[in-house]
Amino acid sequence: MNIKVIAVGIYIAFIYWLSLHVSFLDTLFFPALGAFGFLFAARSFHLAEYCKITLGAVVSSLAGTLLYLIYPGTVTLFINVLFAIWLIKRMKWNAPPIVAVAIIPFFSHSPYHVLVPVSVLVSLAGLTALLYAAELIAARWPKTAAAKREQPDMAG
């Protein structure tokens, strides 16, 4: 199994656990985190691309939060979804989960809606850092194993 996929699974489980046990961190876990994890793990690691997608997620969650705070209704949800889709197309972010994070305030039951954009940023930054580490490990692991096989046996 791919080390990045295992890292994503562990990370999402940890974020879920953390969001359950620390009350003000309840917005840290959101279902789209799994979609971002798969999206990031399925691609080769390019920090600039991950940062662009994270920026898109933060901007759309900020817009969604502001619209929710103005009026938490169907019309603002509709405007929010259209805005998120427009942003994705305009900025060429190629990351549909950005729409999902835009609507978090509309289904979250947290009293801390203003923390949604911060939570999205922290969750995706942590995911990016973890996948960067997994990429480094994966890049060195085969080289280390191959180098050990090529070394002559000194015992005999």
Automatic annotation (TrEMBL):
Output this protein's name: HPP family protein
The keyword Transmembrane is assigned to this record: yes
Its domain of life? Bacteria
Organism of this sequence: Paenibacillus protaetiae
The alphabetized UniProt keywords are:
Membrane, Transmembrane, Transmembrane helix
> Membrane-spanning residues where?
5-22, 28-45, 66-88, 114-134
